[in-house]
Specification:
It contains five helices and seven strands; from the N terminus they run βαβαββαααβββ. With 135 residues, the chain is an alpha/beta fold. A five-stranded mixed β-sheet has the order 1-5-3-4-2. The protein has a two-stranded antiparallel ribbon with strand order 6-7. The protein is globular and about 50 Å long.
């Protein structure tokens, strides 16, 4: 088993993320998938919106753990970022009255800069074996 640590931008991460199996837009051809052992997507809309708003306010993204190309920790965060970028929901930043979807966010230079510069810390584990089977 080998472990490395890296960071990637949200855009680069999402370009390689398949999405969540069973959701519209899932792309089996993408490299990063959610592991079968990961829990179902359980975040309510308010939690998804809060997570995206925190990124747009400059707060860090918690680390994700990826084992052999499968997300074993960070599935809800990954799915939320993917859903937002795919227009599934809007956010309203504190102190504002305007709701923004991903496309509208891209029209705001300051918000786009925060989104584009935000990094996702990742613990990458390769050749992992769990209960006698390689993941």
């Amino acid at each position: 088993m080998n472990t490395t640590f890296q960071t990637t931008t949200i855009g680069d991460f999402l370009d390689n993320f398949a999405g969540r199996k069973g959701m519209e837009g899932y792309d089996e051809a993408k490299q990063i998938k959610i592991a079968e052992c990961n829990r179902d997507f359980v975040w309510p809309l308010s939690m998804q919106q809060g997570f995206v708003c925190s990124i747009l306010q400059g707060f860090p993204i918690p680390a994700m753990c990826i084992t052999n190309g499968q997300i074993v920790d960070g599935g809800n965060r990954s799915t939320t970022l993917w859903l937002f970028r795919n227009g599934a929901f809007r956010v309203k930043l504190p102190g504002t009255t305007t709701e923004l979807d991903y496309e509208a966010m891209c029209g705001d230079r300051a918000l786009t800069r925060r989104w584009d510069s935000a990094v996702i810390p990742q613990q990458i584990i390769t050749n992992a074996i769990v209960t006698g089977k390689q993941i």
